[in-house]
Design goal:
rod-shaped; mainly beta
Amino acid sequence: MTDTMTETMQGTKLGPALVRKVEGAEVTVLREGIESSAQNALAFPYAPQAGDVVLVIGDAPAYIIGVLHAQGDMSLHFPANVHFHARGGFQFSSGERVEMQAPEVKVTAGKYELVARTLSEKVTNAMRWVKDLASLKAGRRKVQVDGANIERAERHILKAKKDVRLNGERIHLG
């Protein structure tokens, strides 16, 4: 790391520092070849990690007031509810994956669109209520039910261009 520490007009040191170790709230930083203690004074929740380059002001005490380069994973921890609001759009993107974990997830939308190459769902129970039309367009469809398969409709129409096969011990019609 280059020696880019500067002094402000009041003589307070300001410049980059390398995070050497973190023990609880105690952060040890290396600047100008000297290890010293610094406190995290950022306005957003940031968890320093060894190898991060931070912006430090002051000497004793020294305060971390910026993150210039983060080495590892970034974590945000909040002690209570968090609300995100945007007047326009809101977008999450990742180069690898997005993962959510919660006891309950609720999505409310005027239109909900899911676009995926592969969709895999594993649930204990699934209920779906559709007021008007439920439509499925598929290249092929396979349904496997271990127990009973019950379908009820006011009208049930089955059409096939080729064969229709029914196979069972007994087939009741009417």
